[in-house]
Amino acid sequence: MLEARNLTVKYEHRVAVADVSLSLNETEITAIIGPNGAGKSTLLRTLNGQLPRASGTVLLEGEPIERLNRRSISRKIAVVAQEAELRFPVTVLEFVLGGRFAWATHAGWGWETERDLHVAESVLRETELSELSARLMNELSGGERQRALMARALATEAPILLLDEPTANLDLSHQATLLTLVRNRCDQHRAAALVVTHDINLAAQFADNILLMKQGKTVHYGGPAEVLRPEILQEVFEIRVLVDAHPVTGGPRVTPIHEPIR
Amino acid sequence: MITNASETIASPARPNRVTLRKTLVSCTALGAALLLAIVVMSLLGSEPLPVRASLCALASFGTSTCGLSQDQFDILFQIRLPRILLAAAVGGSLATAGAGYQALLRNPLAEPYLLGISNGAAVGTMIALVFFGANEWTRPILAFTGALAATFVVYQLARGRAGATPERLILAGVIVTTFLSSVIVFVTVLMDATRIRSFTFWLLGDLSGSSRALLPVAIIIAIVGALALTLNARSLNLLMLGERDAFDLGVEVGRVRIVVFLVASLLVGSSVAASGSVGYVGLVVPHLARLSLGSDNRISIPAAALGGALFVIVADTVARTIIAPRELPVGAITALIGAPLFIYLLRRA
């Protein structure tokens, strides 16, 4: 659905992403992991056409992304980034309805349709925010706000989800709930998701593919069992890790080993 | 069972949402209040006018004197009414521009006067007066140019690597304001002494000496500007929550930014050329509109436009009647109301 071929992104003269290729397919979750400054978020921002590429192509359903206009891209790709700026009082429902912008018949004026409201109400239910829908966004807790961001992304009905550290503000149970939402989108609506995360175990549990990056380059790209091997992680994160089988899922489980500095 | 429960949970949110109906009702009410204010305020002033005859003359749109003396008729139609209409245009323009800047800069404190944009327009107007004094049309054009240049500079100064924080924007506004103030002092020195006093008044925002020739232009610009920003209201709703998010959701951020900059500068330019720098209107009015009607720009921008017109009409009536027959500049009244509100907003932010 979304394919990147040999992407290179530069900030002035520094290369942030170097020659990375990946492809997001229906029903698959892809996780990007790697140390800070590896170019994970930059890559994500390039995939929806926000950052200019130095070279390479991004194909959205086979079409070069630069040929599509903003609104038609937004009907296909939804982004969940870190927290929104909330200097104006906006209700949760108004915030989530923002996700329907790309579907409006008129870009500037125009009002939400019954269908827009229906979609908003159903994603509010999915994200367990129905009861908070009339509350103001800045009255919510960090975790509730993160769920509202997720709800807004789901409200776009885009088949491709790009998530930039979506679980950063969430407690353990909501981390799993959120990724279950992503999983359900992928399974039930044949969506594709890309998740940038620092939580390797969450990636191991939910991702079908993992892209491991360091200094803008692809170190490894494949299934969790293939990528999450101790020798690879040790090399990239420069720390000893133990990888064993998760007692419940049987997938790889990564534990860093903090050794005293000699 | 499950569907029933979720429906009852979801439905209470609906009344809070801004709808076309709510917008039309609010704007009609504000429009009626504005019309009423125009009529009532034109009866008030240092020279008392007979109420019934004046109302009759106003209702006839000046085609009949209805028994008013020629002097009274002239006071009503040559002095008060044009001044009230200009106050409406200036108020509507400044409030709309304020609402536009606030949404675009994601900052409830953004205001043309506080950001130095009014001063930019004032410098433009003064240059027009000093160098092209004979030609009245150069004033709004140079005022627009000055406002646009000031907007651009403030925007660039306020945009840090981490984005524009409210404090940074206000600081950028202070820098631009003080710099342009000294430019204004330099230009004032070039003028002859007799014009300096009227100039000082004009700088504070004054509707008394305003040019009647620019009245239709100011009214047209106010209406067109308010419509243009209202037509971008849904994009502005998303821009208010961050440029990146707005981009992700499908807003053509660059295009909307240019439209708002151009329209808001045009609004500030035309109002400053007509009446000097009337401060705080762009702060007070959009704030009240959001407080009573919510942050949705589809309702708060048109409501701010109408409310701004109402606010300046009332403020100017106070300015010209409170110590009659002498007059205060209207900017002194609006600042008297606006500055405390600004402090309140700053403390809350």
- CATH homologous superfamily of chain A? P-loop containing nucleotide triphosphate hydrolases
User: What gap, in angstroms, lies between the N and C termini of chain B?
Assistant: 44 Å
- Overall number of structural domains of chain A: 1
Stretches with pLDDT under 50, minimum 5 residues of chain B: 1-15
Q: Per CATH, which architecture of chain B?
A: Orthogonal Bundle
Give a description of the structure.
The complex is a heterodimer of chains A (262) and B (349). Chain A has 262 residues and is α/β, with parallel strands linked by helices. Chain A has a single domain (2-257), classed as Rossmann fold. Chain A is built from nine helices and twelve strands. Chain A has helices at residues 40-47, 70-76, 92-97, 114-126, 142-155, 172-188, 200-206, 224-227, 230-237, and strands at 2-11, 14-24, 29-33, 55-60, 63-64, 77-80, 160-164, 192-196, 209-214, 217-222, 240-245, 252-257. In chain A, strands 6-7-8-3-9-10 form a six-stranded mixed β-sheet, sandwiched between helices. A four-stranded antiparallel β-sheet of chain A has the order 2-1-4-5, with helices on one face. In chain A, a hairpin with a 2-residue loop joins strand 1 (2-11) and strand 2. In chain A, helix 4 packs across helix 5 (142-155). The longest helix of chain A has 17 residues, at 172-188. Chain A is globular, with a radius of gyration of 19 Å. Chain B is mainly α and 349 residues long. Chain B has a single domain, classed as ABC transporter involved in vitamin B12 uptake, BtuC (Orthogonal Bundle), CATH 1.10.3470.10. Chain B contains 15 helices and no strands. Chain B has helices spanning 2-10, 20-43, 51-59, 70-104, 117-131, 138-158, 166-189, 193-203, 215-230, 233-239, 243-248, 253-275, 281-293, 297-321, 330-348. In chain B, helix 4 packs across helix 13, helix 10 (233-239) crosses helix 14 (297-321) and helix 13 packs across helix 14. The longest helix of chain B is centred in the first third of the chain and has 35 residues, at 70-104. Chains A and B meet through helix 2, strand 6, helix 3 and helix 4 of A and helix 1, helix 10 and helix 11 of B.
